[in-house]
Amino acid sequence: MQAVGKKILLQNRSVARKVNKPLLINKHNQQLVATEPISGDLVGLPIEVLYRIFDYLDAQTILLSLQYVCRRLRDVSEKYDRYALDFENISMVQMWHVCRLVRPESVLSLNLSDGPSTPQGIEFFLSLINIRKFTRLRSLSIHQSADDIFHTILKYVHGCRSVESFSIHFRRASLFGRPDSPDDDYHGPSLTLLASAIAKSNLKTFKTNLPKYQIDCLLWPMNLTLQHLTIGNCTQKQYYMILQRSPRLRTLTLNFIFINRKKTLLFHISHPLSSLALLEQKSSITALKQILSWTPSLVTLKIIGTQSFDTFLLESTQLETFLHNNFNLLSRFHIFIRCSIDEQPFAVDALMASFQTPFWTEDKRWFFTCEPRLPDNCLFYSASMRTMAHPYTLYIGGNSRSNFDEINSNAEMMNTVGKLHFEPTKMQYFNSREKNITGQSFYPNVTILHLKFHDNWPSDGIEFVSSLIDMSRVTALELYYDRKLDSISDSIVHVGKLFKQAVNVSALVVFRYKCLYDRFKWEKLCSVIPHHVKHLSISASDPEDMKTILDNLKHLWSIRFQWPTGIISEDKGTCSREIINDLKMKKQNFKYLHDDFELQIWLSNA
């Protein structure tokens, strides 16, 4: 069942096929309503079982579809009190309907966003409903909002004792400014209010992307309830203070810890932290030894980062001794290191030899792969890192090394791949044997497919991609080009064929790395984009092209115009104003945000 705007469409599912009485159209809101209760297995289930089923459905499905099937399901949906509202990728019309129908006291989780799919979405939400009415809310997530909105929300968090999980992601203040400027800051309220909300609430989980220079302003209210923390980055001293002032902290996730090798810290602490994740660590593992020693009870350690191959090769010989002597409870070690290569050939076999000892393969059963990405880098990763959260780049023909039996473990590893990067235009360099072997390597759980083009599609491109993944599971398709327009034009035909298999794609990205001033027939591209695509991110720099796209894709919920490189800031501002004024003249209801990188538009299309 699917709800789209004001018109609710009931698909041919088992519930709909059980209808014994005719369905009537409610003339006031164009929704389908059954005249009599529907007999069938679903509606006859006990209410507790229906509640469990509802737990696996989004609020839009329950409120905009199921409750209009029959009186029984309507009554159950009205009594249901475990709603999770996710407004990060939703149409403006759907948000309006959900806010009108839901009882705030029945909501346990709320996710609000001013992101690319819903610019100014938080302000729109607050105009529809009073957030103070959410008296049973346990989890609140806020993404990329503005100062005055944050103030309202933080006052709510400060006074609401039911909220246990709070996530707040600040948007960079880079409106037509340099994104790499030292003055580049984050939008947000007074950090004092944020610190007070953390200290005086019952929070068990807190997530933010604040950088280290703002963490100092926040650091660190004593919070005896905080158990799970995610922040952007911090210094060694800040890391120590977090551990010292959060005695019940069990999981900690950071982008990286800034290590000052010229300054030795005399601090020491033994904290019962059980899980630590460093997602963008730039320093060597050796430099982390002191701070890692502060958490001897670690059960899970994840490190994602970059290093030179020579440095990592040297550290690999010491890593086993360090982990064995300091972390008796460590049972999960996840690592993903992108190594830069200065000289050829490089010692892949020597690196993998360090991980062939009984400690890795028998005691811990931790398995790793080193995958050359010539000419200048290679990847070293644990088998567990091919996950939904970490994209995997398909590199056919590479000479990888592993400390496990790849043939027996291949299927299990490929099942964990959720985002696949692939360059179809390189297929011409593979021989038929490689194609056949690759065709057997099936990635059944890929939901995000990223295709990068340097040239025209190969003749058997669609068949080859289809042999790699289950296209019916893909929900986001990303197409990146960096060559001539004729390669883009050639690929449009293939993209159209691809969409015939990718029937569940709701988000599409089309991006060109370089500014191309040649005229391009955007109508041709729009003609192959199906109606189930609701969110479009596209590289365009000409106002007339952007208007053409908007006029031809009336089914979109949101569109994100990304500026190609080579466009000056003044032209970006002029282009944004022209598009915004054009939408206003057409009296279209919309919300928008624009900066030096893109123009985001949230449309009221049904």
Question: Which properties best describe this structure?
Answer:
disordered N terminus; 22% strand; 606 residues; alpha/beta; Translation Initiation Factor IF3; 28 strands; 13-stranded mixed sheet; nine-stranded mixed sheet; globular
Describe the structure.
It is a single chain. With 606 residues, the chain is of the alpha/beta class. It has a domain at 533-606: Translation Initiation Factor IF3 (2-Layer Sandwich), CATH 3.30.110.150. Helix content is 32%, strand content 22%. It contains 21 helices and 28 strands. The strands form 5 sheets. A 13-stranded mixed beta sheet has the order 5-6-7-8-9-10-12-14-15-16-18-17-20. A 9-stranded mixed beta sheet has the order 19-21-22-23-24-25-26-28-27, with helices on one face. Helix 7 (147-159) packs parallel to helix 8. The longest helix has 18 residues, at 309-326. The two termini are 16 Å apart. The model is unreliable at 1-39, 173-189 and 428-441 (pLDDT under 50).
Summarize the structure.
This protein has a 13-stranded mixed β-sheet with strand order 5-6-7-8-9-10-12-14-15-16-18-17-20. Strands 19-21-22-23-24-25-26-28-27 form a 9-stranded mixed β-sheet, covered by helices on one side. It contains 21 helices and 28 strands. The chain is an alpha/beta fold.
